[in-house]
Amino acid sequence: MKFKKKILCIGAGYVGGPSMAMIAHKCPDYRVTVVDINSERIDAWNSPHLPVYEPGLDKIVKQCRGKNLFFSKDIENQIKENDLIFVSVNTPTKTYGAGADMAADLQYLEKTARQILKYSHSSKIVIEKSTLPVKTALTMEKILSSAKGKIKFEVLSNPEFMAEGSAMNDLENPDRVLIGSRETKSGLKARARLVEIYARWVPLKKIITSNIWSSELSKLVANAFLAQRVSSINSISALCEKTDADIVEVAKAVGLDSRIGDKFLRAGVGFGGSCFKKDIFNLVYLCHYYGLREVASYWENIIKINQYQQDRFIANILHAMFGTLAGKKICILGFAFKADTSDTRESPAIYISQKLLTEQAELTISDPRALKNAAIDLAGVKGKITYIDDPYKAAAGCHALLILTDWEMYRTLDYRKLYRSMVKPAFLFDGRNIVDYQKCHAIGFNIYPIGRKALTHF
Ligand code: NAD
Ligand code: UGA
How far apart are CA 392 and CA 192, in angstroms? Predict the structure, then answer.
């Protein structure tokens, strides 16, 4: 079949895989290829067991794979063959040298730019999909403009706003698609080519364009604002616990103001995921770089509150369980950083588990999707840990249950059955406020929700 457009994505991760699958699904006359340096990942994309769990993803990949969606290890030839190249490589926080623990580590992005430069025999449009510090396109341009002869590269910014767990729906019905470009003739032409792709399924009024720096910065700011709401509500949950106010009632009352809105006001054990913390640090680093100390410290506090919330949760457990966890069995329900994903990157469950093990608690960990990643995250951590799929088996014989992920199934567990199998007095720490806490109290649990009065039998 002759394809109308050929698209390449470099980076077959949580963003590259699902976002390209959506383009392939919506544009059957486009040929979409995704490449990665990680050959195991490519093998997994080509197997029945995809490397990323995302509701709805399997179906689309199975429909399109081998028809107009391909996963390949041949980076060199794919760069040669395609003239629209998305870059969706990882941009983690730097762990070494200048800017360690704060700046974005742009080595993968730079290597990708150099690969594109090396293997290109014709002009191309390179689209930043990764989340990047503002002005990164300039670095890309500098590297790519060293190409010899007539080859020209146009760099666009097209940040991805999908969230894990709801990625397919977010990609199909985005609030907006943002495309930033240089405001030159060739920049605007390249931008129009990208608009054309999204316009296949996204209403034009939702495809917004801007200058390239606004686009790069908007992505960092969007994540910072979302994380700020979570830290704001979590900070108030601490005040609720001191004053007998109820965080769920407060969030409802505040969120009903249409100027504030009700989303992202769920108090919990703190935000996790690979992006919020890294992107805020990225923003903080940029502010320092430009000498904006006050602005940097304003955004940094969001991360401090997130850490505080996790420490507070652990302190509450220790206090409630008579000051010692040594030799006590604790069952962790949920290890993923949020529901509907197997992703555990920066999950609060990692830090909380480590702290509980330091207190010499014994852990049984249960999660419907993330146990494999949990075992990798806690490999080498000293202490006794057992991984059990079935929540009922995991809870049996434990002194306490901790709900750390908002999986729907945890709302509807048979808490009476769980209670019966546990050591008494049985404790339930609901780190996501998802159980009917009055009912659980009536069953016999000593229950400690977040930002609401604890109900005990003491
Ligand atoms: P990821 O780690 O899952 O995937 C990145 C992939 O890029 C890896 O498989 C890696 O092997 C590959 N890679 C790195 N260097 C390469 C190279 N030179 N050539 C080919 N492949 C290379 O990361 P992710 O979660 O998909 O995130 C990618 C970017 O998108 C990040 O900047 C992130 O901030 C941003 N983002 C992520 C999400 C999300 O939900 N995970 C959402 C929006 C934006
Ligand atoms: C987030 C953003 O929502 C996406 O728009 C963005 O594209 C993505 O980061 C990214 O750049 O990687 P994601 O991290 O996948 O998406 O998931 P969220 O739904 O934002 O949840 C992040 C964390 O906040 C989770 O740990 C979640 O449990 C927590 N959260 C969220 C709360 O504790 N309370 C809330 O009310 C909402």
Answer: 55
What residue's CA is closest to ligand 2, atom 35? 264
The verdict on 414 and 455 lying in the same domain is yes
Contact 220 CB / ligand 1 (< 6 Å) = no
Ligand 2 pocket: which residues have CB below 6 Å? Answer: 131, 160-164, 223, 226, 230, 264-266, 268, 271-273, 275-276, 337-338
The domain boundary, picked from 155, 173, 202, lies at: 202
Domain stops at, among 202, 232, 260: 202
Task: For residue 440, indicate whether it is catalytic.
Answer: no
Ligand nearest to the CA of 272: 2
Q: For residue 90, give the 3-state DSSP assignment.
A: coil
pTM, full prediction: 0.97
Q: With a 6 A CB cut-off, is 11 part of the ligand 1 pocket?
A: yes
Is 374 part of any domain? yes
- The answer to the question of residue 207 being in a domain is no
Cα–Cα distance measured from residue 60 to residue 24, given in angstroms and rounded to the nearest whole number: 9
**Residues 101/183, Cβ–Cβ less than 8 Å:** no
CATH number assigned to the domain comprising residue 265:
3.40.50.720
Q: What is the domain extent for residue 380?
A: 212-458
The confidence band for 96, taking pLDDT boundaries of 50, 70 and 90, is very high
426-439 per-residue burial string, b: 16 or more CB within 10 A, e: under 16: bbbbbbbbbbebee
Residue range 312-352, pLDDT digits in tens? 999 999 999 999 999 999 999 999 999 999 999 999 999 99
- In the chain the first and final C-alpha atoms are separated, in Å, by 73
pLDDT over 90 at 150, yes or no: no
Token pair for residue 30? 């486009």
Handedness of CA 282, 286, 292, 293 (dihedral sign): positive
Q: Where are the beta strands (DSSP E) in 80-167?
A: 84-87, 124-128, 153-157
Statement to judge: residues 288 and 225 lie in one domain = yes
Total number of domains in the chain: 2
